[in-house]
């Protein structure tokens, strides 16, 4: 075994006992489970797996688990407490690797094709966006074993082969962005870092766990002092967002560093970070950023660090420069506009032009839809959504478009909803979520839809209040061909084609 060491009287190696002790401290630090995902695992681990269980899984899948991860399952716990929504046990992994028909979803036996900090060209090559648009199968995550969920289509995995074997990687099953390889070289260091950060009270709301550099404020300041590389400086600055407060020594140091910094991108990052921690005299830097044309950074400060008075003073200027923003800056602007939704001159019609911009990426468009969903006057852009819902093929984008039109009373819109339900209600992912909707959990709740096709179908059902039934009952009606056809005829949708 890679990490077993000398066994104690209980049969657990010392490192495993240390992890379990840290886990108890983490649970004591977060008794109300407020940390992201904590309520799902409650800092509890399942009993360790047996050697026989692990060997059977490995033989079945034709793989050998990385030693540190294998030892964790064997000596610490077979799934449960972990970053985000926790870790899978072996039985859950078996389900994740195969669909309901037993067909393999992950080609774990193959050599991985992803690696840290891939170029856009290499990522597009393995993710093959053109192939996906044609409906072809794409498998950029070969050689990756899913070990946990981060919510929606975001996953935590572990590399099974190649030079990065044993390293934890974050990836999106919808291929919305490149995979992210955590800095820790092994599974155990990554897991222990999570426990340390929970115990220390570090936040994972602004930057998810493991996406930033490990270290205390003092350690990160030391790293900053030792580098002249702008990219490294920015990475260090971004890592400060996990702290709830910034100690006085670091406030003084970075305010001085900001005044002396010649690299404009680094300086803008410093201004944003110092405003975030309410360092005196930094809010006035907004005007300087605007003069420099650093609109994205300025909007980010307005959105996340600015007071209500700042948003009130700046939101019209945010509207003005919206055509120049894309990516994070555009998404931040959408958040700012949503925040002032109650102002008389803020309404969906002011974003009509933005809806027709063809260069918005997937995340930008989702943010725009989410913003419009918050605004009054959605009828002003209904014609756009009638066309969009008729032509878009991406179920995730359709989810947000449906949210966006929620509350708008229009017969043509309702007919489109019915067409979409007809199209997606029999998708295998919707059927999977249907089974979950029929599973009664403790307290009488049920499993909600978790896959994009199921979520889309669920949201469409909600536009008709689940057809006058509760959620599980609505899903039952939708899956019953006869009852569904009868409901459509009774409500005047009998002529709506699939």
Order of helices and strands: HHHHHHHEEEEHHHHHHHHHHHHHHHHHH
Portion in strands: under 5%
The name of the CATH superfamily of the domain at 14-126 and 139-200 reads SMI1/KNR4-like
How do the strands line up in the largest sheet?
1-2-3-4
The biggest sheet, with number of strands, parallel, antiparallel or mixed sense and barrel status, is: 4 strands, antiparallel
Low-confidence stretches: 1-6
- Helix/strand/pairing category: mainly alpha
Brief digest:
The chain is mainly alpha-helical and 498 residues long. It is built from 25 helices and four strands. The protein has a four-stranded antiparallel beta sheet with strand order 1-2-3-4.
Kindly describe this structure:
With 498 residues, the protein is mainly alpha-helical. Among the domains are: 175 residues, SMI1/KNR4-like (3-Layer(aba) Sandwich); 122 residues, no CATH class. 51% of the residues lie in helices and 4% in strands. It contains 25 helices and 4 strands. It has a 4-stranded antiparallel sheet with strand order 1-2-3-4. α9 runs antiparallel to α10, α15 crosses α16 and α19 runs parallel beside α21. The longest helix is centred in the first third of the chain and has 16 residues. It is globular. The N terminus is likely disordered.
How are the elements arranged and paired?
Elements: H1 14-29, H2 38-41, H3 51-61, H4 67-75, H5 90-97, H6 120-127, H7 129-133, E1 144-151, E2 154-159, E3 168-172, E4 180-181, H8 187-200, H9 217-225, H10 230-238, H11 248-260, H12 264-276, H13 285-292, H14 295-304, H15 308-321, H16 328-339, H17 352-355, H18 362-374, H19 382-391, H20 395-404, H21 411-424, H22 428-437, H23 452-462, H24 471-479, H25 481-490
Antiparallel strand pairs: 1-2, 2-3, 3-4
Helix pairs in contact: 1-8, 9-10, 10-12, 11-12, 12-14, 13-14, 14-15, 14-16, 15-16, 16-18, 18-20, 19-21, 20-23, 21-23, 22-23
């Amino acid at each position: 075994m890679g990490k077993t060491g000398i066994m104690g009287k209980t049969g657990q190696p010392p490192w495993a006992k240390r992890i379990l002790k840290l886990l108890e401290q983490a649970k004591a630090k977060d008794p109300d489970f407020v940390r992201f995902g904590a309520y799902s695992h409650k800092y509890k681990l399942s009993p360790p797996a047996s050697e026989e269980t692990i060997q059977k899984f490995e033989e079945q899948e034709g793989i050998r688990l990385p030693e540190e991860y294998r030892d964790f399952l064997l000596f610490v716990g077979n799934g449960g407490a972990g970053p985000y929504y926790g870790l899978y046990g072996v039985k859950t992994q078996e389900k994740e690797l195969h669909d309901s028909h037993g067909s393999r979803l992950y080609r774990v036996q193959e050599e991985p094709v992803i690696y840290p900090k891939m170029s856009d060209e290499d990522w597009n090559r393995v993710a093959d966006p053109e192939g996906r648009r044609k409906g072809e199968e794409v498998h950029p995550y070969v050689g990756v074993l899913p070990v946990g969920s981060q919510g929606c289509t975001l996953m935590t995995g572990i590399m099974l082969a190649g030079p990065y074997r044993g390293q934890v990687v974050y990836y999106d099953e919808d291929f919305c962005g490149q995979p992210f390889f955590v800095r820790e070289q092994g599974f155990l260091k990554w897991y222990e870092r999570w426990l340390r950060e929970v115990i220390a009270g570090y936040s994972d709301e602004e930057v998810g766990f493991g996406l930033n550099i490990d270290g205390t404020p003092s350690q990160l300041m030391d790293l900053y002092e030792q580098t002249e590389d702008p990219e490294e400086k920015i990475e260090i600055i971004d890592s400060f967002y996990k702290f709830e407060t910034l100690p006085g020594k670091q406030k003084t140091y970075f305010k001085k560093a900001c005044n002396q910094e010649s690299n404009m991108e680094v300086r803008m990052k410093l201004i944003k970070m110092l405003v975030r921690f309410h360092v005196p005299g930094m809010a006035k830097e907004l005007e300087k950023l605007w003069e420099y044309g650093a609109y994205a950074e300025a909007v980010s400060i307005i959105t996340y660090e600015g007071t209500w008075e700042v948003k009130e003073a700046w939101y019209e200027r945010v509207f003005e420069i919206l055509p120049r923003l894309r990516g994070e800056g555009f998404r931040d602007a959408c958040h700012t506009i949503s925040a002032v939704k109650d102002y008389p001159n803020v309404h969906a019609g002011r974003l009509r032009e933005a809806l027709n911009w063809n260069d918005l990426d997937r995340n930008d468009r989702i943010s725009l839809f989410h913003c419009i969903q918050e605004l009054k006057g959605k009828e002003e852009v209904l014609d756009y959504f009638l066309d969009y819902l008729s032509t878009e093929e991406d179920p995730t984008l359709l989810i947000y478009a449906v949210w966006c039109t929620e509350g708008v009373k229009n017969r043509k819109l309702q007919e489109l909803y019915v067409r979409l339900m007809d199209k997606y209600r029999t998708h295998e992912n919707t059927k999977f979520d249907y089974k979950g909707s029929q599973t009664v959990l403790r307290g009488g709740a049920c499993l909600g839809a978790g896959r994009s096709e199921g979520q889309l179908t669920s949201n469409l059902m909600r536009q008709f209040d689940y057809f006058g039934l509760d959620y599980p009952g609505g899903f039952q009606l939708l899956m019953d061909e006869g009852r569904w056809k009868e409901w459509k005829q009774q409500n005047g949708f009998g002529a709506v084609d699939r």
